[in-house]
Amino acid sequence: MFPQIRAAVGLGVAAVLLAGCAGTSGGVTGTSGNDSRYVAGDPGVQLINDRKTAPQAKGTGLDGTSVDLAGYRGKVVVVNFWASWCAPCRGEAPSLEKLAQEKQAAGVQFLGVDIKDAKSAGLAFQRTFGTSYPSIFDPDGKVTLDFRVVPPSAVPSTLILDRQGRVAVRIIGLTTYSRLSPLIDRVVAEK
Asked: Cα Rg for the chain, rounded, in angstroms?
């Protein structure tokens, strides 16, 4: 590949990664037209009507234990895609941990996916923010790619899975306590 083309491709990839980790809560709004899977609303939040089953994602946690999403079936699961190098991920980490503690009694499980990161940096992130829930170590992005049914299009991204293991909500970009809490409650309240 010519050096100029290689540089252009590298800049394009960098732009996509930086756009996903830009520190805004914006991103994707609900779609319009004939796609009935999404409902427009809060920027960056998609409430999904035509729910698809999440993949049977599994991997090794940052702590070395085996983590399998299938083991959480029957619970509402909040899956957060993050990386230690992502400033918005650091910004949302305290809210995620607070919600993980508060919602546990309601049968809600949190699961992180540490993507494109060094293991030592991911462990340092967890120590810094006191993250109590497990995170799958996903340095090559394979687990993240498994979620292509409703892809986490940026880092950070957060998915809420219903009790049947289907993706009910997708949040692109930084989330906050006040944004995420009512969305979790909405999925918990479903029969």
From this structure: 16
The vertex-149 CA angle with 113 and 118, nearest 5°, equals 20
Check: CB of residue 69 under 8 Å from CB of residue 48: no
Instruction: Say how far apart CA 65 and CA 99 lie, in whole Å.
Output: 23
CA distance 4 to 9: 9
Q: Does domain 3-188 have CATH number 3.40.50.1100?
A: no
The domain ranges of the chain are 3-188
The 10s digit of each residue's pLDDT in 151-171 is 888 899 999 999 999 999 999
Backbone φ and ψ of 122, nearest 5°: -65, -40
State the Cα angle at 82 between 111 and 137, rounded to 5°: 65
* Stated pTM of the model: 0.79
Total Cβ atoms within 10 A of residue 132? 11
CA distances from 191 to 74, 75, 125, 157, 162 (A): 12, 12, 36, 26, 10
Note whether 173 and 158 are within 8 A (CB).
Answer: no
